[in-house]
Amino acid sequence: MAEISLNPTDQAILELLNEGRCTPSYIAEETGYSRGNIQNRLLRFVEHGYVEQLGGGLYELVEDPREED
Q1: CATH code at 12?
Q2: Confidence class of residue 68 from pLDDT cuts 50, 70 and 90?
Q3: Helix (H, G, I), strand (E, B) or coil at 48
Q4: Other CB atoms within 10 A of residue 23 CB
Q5: Is residue 40 part of a domain?
Q6: pLDDT score of 1
Q7: 54 contacts 21 by C-beta, under 8 angstroms
Q8: Which end of the chain is more exposed for a tag (fewer CB within 10 A), N or C?
Q9: pLDDT attached to residue 67
């Protein structure tokens, strides 16, 4: 799997997903980042297989890319 570089938004998203399933709106409220930015980053994680979209706007962490270092 290709490596991805993680920015501060990614780190914040991963911290919340590590605690449990989340929606982009919840992550945006908790982090202060825009919902659109969160959504874009989540879709990138889905493409790389790190996060799964469960439906209803819910996302779940499958594999934490930070653990590959």
Answers
A1: 1.10.10.10
A2: low
A3: helix
A4: 17
A5: yes
A6: 46
A7: yes
A8: C
A9: 84
19-23: long-range contacts, CB 8 A cutoff, minimum separation 24: 21/54, 21/58, 21/59, 21/60, 22/58, 22/59, 23/57, 23/58, 23/59
Please indicate, yes or no, if residue 16 is contained in any of the structural domains.
yes
Question: What pLDDT shows up at residue 2?
Answer: 53
Task: Enter the tokens of residue 57.
Answer: 């706007």
Range of the domain at 13: 8-64
pLDDT in tens, 11-53: 999 999 999 999 999 999 999 999 999 999 999 999 999 999 9
Which carries the bigger pLDDT value, residue 69 or residue 47? 47
Q: Which residues contact 3 (CB under 8 A, 6 or more apart)?
A: 65, 68
Our count of domains for the chain comes to: 1
Q: Is 34 a member of any domain?
A: yes
Q: Tell me, yes or no, whether 3 lies in a domain.
A: no
pLDDT at position 14? 97
